[in-house]
Amino acid sequence: MQVSVLLQAKGVGVVTVSPDLITSEVVAVLAEHHIGAVVVSADGRHIDGVLSERDVVRAIAREGAGALDEPARRWMTAEVVTCQPDTTVEELMNTMTDRRIRHVPVVVDGGLSGLISIGDVVKDRISGLEAEKQVLNDYISHPY
Predict the structure, then answer these.
(1) CATH superfamily label, 3-141
(2) Which of 16, 60, 76, 80 is 20 to 30 A from residue 25's alpha carbon, by CA?
(3) Three-state SS across the chain?
(4) Where are the domains of the chain?
(5) pLDDT tens-digit readout, 43-87
């Protein structure tokens, strides 16, 4: 299965923030939307970085509470791993595992077109396993 199928199921909306937004305000955005990361983008289309809860925790550990008064650009991950709609879910799972990342923006023609989280991948995997289980149960119950 391809990433495009996951995007069809979850939608293509992506929460973005300005690189100049103060980190405490980014934290409020994360809480408001019940998400673990935002794409940092000056124009909402091009990716400047990703700022995750993990990035914020590391910033606070390093700089103390004053880190929350700094702009998102200071703490964001600037080297962002991306994928395309035709990337397979298996490839994406391997990338997420190998790179230890939980959020991967989807890019089309150089612009942001979605965001896949590890939760999206796990949800899809569980659905697939449940469907397979049902097929096997049906086969065992009604072999002919």
Answers:
(1) CBS-domain (3.10.580.10)
(2) 80
(3) CEHHHHHHHHCCCCCEECCCCEHHHHHHHHHHHCCCEEEECCCCCCCCEEEEHHHHHHHHHHHCHHHHHCEHHHHCECCCCCECCCCEHHHHHHHHHHHCCCEEEEEECCEEEEEEEHHHHHHHHHHHHHHHHHHHHHHHHCCC
(4) 3-141
(5) 999 999 999 999 999 999 999 999 999 999 999 999 999 999 999
